[in-house]
Amino acid sequence: MSSTRQLARFQGPGGIRCSPFAAPSGSVTVNVGPSDASVEVINPATGEVTTHPVEPGKDTQVPIPNVPGGTILILRAGKGLNSRNVVIEVIAPGS
Amino acid sequence: MRLDTACFVAPKPKVPSMPTRRAFLLAGGMFLSGSMIGVSCGYSAGYAAGKSAAEPKEASAAKAPEFDLSPSGDIELDELRRLAVKAPLDELFERGLLFLSSRVAPYKDDVILWHGVDRMSKEILDNPARRVEPSVGAVIIAQIEGTARPAEPSLRDRVPELRKRLAEARRK
């Protein structure tokens, strides 16, 4: 699948796009804008935040923490009030 | 030549029932009385309406003083606090994901920002017409379930209803 076709299935505002689902301890393909060098994975339930470097403007695999299925995670690119956020749901395999 | 008396029948002139001047004074008096009654009724009605309209503002203003919205020295935090406490709900929901993610990090311990979560969850339950992004609703629930402060038991009580309401919105 070409990158363009793959991104058509992605979600998110300008600046960060990724698949809406991921597996626990898996990874998710993230595409950020040209000015972002990292993505934060935020667990709103626990407040845990992990930061991962990404290649600006390219698809990058971002690891997903080992969390129970059904957990909601926020992926954030950029800082402060100009950050862009998308939400993904972690789905346990077989569910 | 002889002069005969002749009588002509003419309608009896109508005497006005009331002299013109007296009628004028009476009409003027009635007009003034009516005006005074109208003004006093209008003033009373306006005062009552204004008072009832001002009450919700006073009630919401009564909630606000518990939050200190003076500049904290952090522009981002000040803006998020404004969103949480003062911003119209439309704006709060429009920037909901940014607000909610910032509340988790880096402002996890800011008590004032919880008021924004409180307002959003209350609005979702109270206003069926409110359009809510599923992602925003999911993050609100996750925050309440995972990190709701012990002082906010009412937020956790809302979770079942929130789930129900968001599931309904998703079906629509």
How are the elements arranged and paired?
The complex is a heterodimer of chains A (95) and B (172).
Chain A: H1 3-8, E1 16-18, E2 21-22, E3 27-32, E4 38-42, E5 49-53, E6 59-63, E7 72-77, E8 84-90
Parallel strand pairs in A: 2-8
Antiparallel strand pairs in A: 1-3, 3-6, 4-5, 4-7, 7-8
Chain B: H1 20-63, H2 75-85, H3 89-94, H4 96-104, H5 111-126, H6 134-147, H7 153-157, H8 159-171
3D structure, described in words:
The complex is a heterodimer of chains A (95) and B (172). Chain A is mostly beta strands and 95 residues long. Chain A is built from one helix and eight strands. Chain A has a five-stranded mixed beta sheet, with no helix packed on it. Chain A starts with a helix and ends in a 5-residue tail after the last strand. Chain B is mainly α. Chain B folds into two domains: 20-63; 75-171. In chain B, α4 (96-104) runs parallel beside α6 (134-147) and α6 (134-147) runs antiparallel to α8. Mean pLDDT of chain B is 82; it is low at 57-62. The A-B interface holds A 40, 42-47, 49, 71-72, 74, 76, 80-81, 83, 85-87, 89 and B 76, 79, 97-98, 100-102, 104-105, 108, 135-136, 138-139, 141-143, 145-147.
Summary, kept brief:
The complex is a heterodimer of chains A (95) and B (172). In chain A, 6% of the residues lie in helices and 41% in strands.
